[in-house]
Amino acid sequence: MSEEKTNAIDLGSLGAFDFTPAWAKKDEKVTVEGGRGRVEDDRPRSGFGGGDKPRRNFGEGRKPFGERKPMGDRPRKSFGDKPRFDRPSFEKPQPLACEVKILPETKALGTIIRKIQGDTHAYKLKDLAYFFLDNPESILLKISPKAPQGSQPQPSTSTSFYQCKVCGFASTKEEDVLEHVLSAHLGEYYDAKEIDCEPPKGNFTCVAKCGLSGILLGPPNIHEFNAVVKKMIRTKYPNMSEADYRSRIEMVRDTESIEAWRASAVKKTVFFHKGEAETEGAAQLTREQAEGEFKRVVLPSLVDKPKHLMIKASVAATSPAKPLVWAVNDAIAAERRAPYAMIYALRGAFHHRKLNIFRANEARGPEFVVAAELKPFDAEHAIPELAAVSKYLDAHPCLDKSEFPAEIADFEKHLQWLVSTGHAVSFTNGVYSAVEKNPKYGPQWKKRKAEDRTAVRLARGAETEETEVAAVTAPSAGTHDGTNLISEEEKNDEVAPVVAE
Fold it and tell me: What is the pLDDT of residue 188?
């Protein structure tokens, strides 16, 4: 028994089951205010996590609201010359302030007119307009500086155009056109010829190498180095500026590269006046000499400064003046959505060349152009064969080849004669219509008139007629109010249009 008392565990030594952390085991006073419990703690408090500094009440030590300075009078904190948030600006590129008029190109227009004159079909003007708009070579642009608004005078910094008289290349900067003429048309006045020469002599410590192609250009201290660089840009990298290309040049100093360049520099290019390359004793010019003479004598006569720029769309797309290119692209995109300007220009050109324009279906219907002068056919005073074809075409507008009647002999031959003489219209989609104020065109005119459908229904055969007569004279047994007769008529009326079509 004493042994059991000795081994017994004294639970009282464990204390109370209080799991409160040690830092929270402080003297607390609980008071009740307004029915709510509030813990009063005598510990000093600070803002974050303790300390001896007493906690400050809200608003303590602050100025009254009326004595504070307004926000506008307070000095702003400066963060240097730059703004606090330096966001990149994304400005939409602005096209050139100009007016762009879209016209058909002269040579392409002449080709189309000759095609219409040698054909008997009627062509839709809207389709012809899109033919031009789909081919940049066939679009001629008239670009003019935008006129000043109101009575304000035009500013002195208005847009100016410079254009090459040879190929039409244009820009808003004169130096762009001068550079183009020099690089593109020098060969039209001078002949280049490659001749043998001795290898370069002297001691060279380095040689320039093209970082794009690996071609050795030569030492940068030789007289021909700049000409070699310009030739590389002109022949291999025409879309790269000289500054960008020079940044790709590397300098190599190994003996093998220097000797390899020396071995390759055994030929040089000289220039002669056009047609004098094979003439004995003709003056040889270097590239610099030929370009200098070209600039003094020829180039001023090849550059124009027009008030209105006339240029093909394909050439305008190659201009280095990006605002000009954007203005052209915007104008062509707007014209493709509604080709009014192109149709207006084509209409005037066709009238000038004595072609005939008419509207189909109605007074505001689609416009067509045809070479022959359209005039109605007098079937009363024509031979029976042509009269039969003309009357059949009057009754069947938008007739295609699959609907030619077999009972009329040589129908197609007589129809083609009517088309060639302007007594019938042949559209490019393969249908024919009679000549009237607004000839019929389109699928809506494939529907026949009610009398045509009735005639087709009566021509279906004797068996169908007997069935209809039986339905009228012998109604079913037990029915005397005509219900079956009406039902049968409704069925015939529903089937007839389908059969006719």
Answer: 92
From the centroid of its chain, how far is CA 490?
55
- The type of residue at 256 is E
Using an 8 Å Cβ cutoff, are 105 and 113 in contact?
A: no
For the record, the structure tokens of 497 come out as 């249009």
Neighbours of 81 (CB within 10 A): 5
Torsion, CA 239, CA 245, CA 248, CA 251, rounded to 10: 150
Token pair for residue 231? 């030739």
User: What domain range is 281 assigned to?
Assistant: 174-304
> CA-CA distance, 180 to 163, in Å (whole number)?
10
The answer to the question of residue 162 being in a domain is no
> Residues 188-221, buried b or exposed e (16+ Cβ, 10 A)?
ebbbeeeeeeeeeeeebeebbbbeeeeebbbbee
Count CB neighbours of 177 within 10 A.
25
- Asked which of 284, 304, 324 is the last residue of a domain, the reply is 304
Query: What's the first-to-final CA gap in the chain, in angstroms?
Result: 122
DSSP per residue over 468-500, as a string?
HHHHHH-PPTT--SSHHHHHHHHHHHHHHHHHH
**Average confidence (pLDDT) per 10 residues, the chain, 501 residues:** 47 44 51 47 48 52 53 50 49 76 95 94 95 95 80 58 94 92 91 85 88 90 85 85 90 90 86 87 87 92 94 94 93 94 95 94 93 90 90 90 89 93 93 92 62 50 46 38 34 33 30
CA distance 356 to 373: 6
Amino acid at 119: D
To which residue do tokens 């565990």 refer?
Answer: 9
Same domain for 300 and 178, yes or no, is: yes
Whether 347 and 93 have beta carbons less than 8 Å apart is answered as no
Paired strand residues for 30: 39
DSSP assignment of 426-438, as one string? EETTS-EEE-SSS
Q: What integer pLDDT is reported at residue 279 of this predicted model?
A: 84
Are both 280 and 252 inside the same structural domain?
yes
Kindly state the greatest CA–CA separation across the chain: 153
Query: How many Cα atoms are found within 13 Å in the side-chain-facing hemisphere of 141?
Result: 30
Three-state DSSP state, 407: coil
Provide the number of structural domains found in the chain.
3
**DSSP state, residue 463:** H
Outline where DSSP puts E strands in 226-335: 249-252, 267-273, 303-304, 309-312
- Confidence at residue 425, expressed as pLDDT on a 0 to 100 scale: 94
The answer to whether position 138 is within a domain reads: no
> Based on C-alpha coordinates, what's the Rg of the chain?
47
At 440, list the tokens. 């019929």
Are the C-beta atoms of residues 289 and 271 closer than 8 Å to each other? yes
Q: Are 485 and 471 in contact (CB under 8 A)?
A: yes
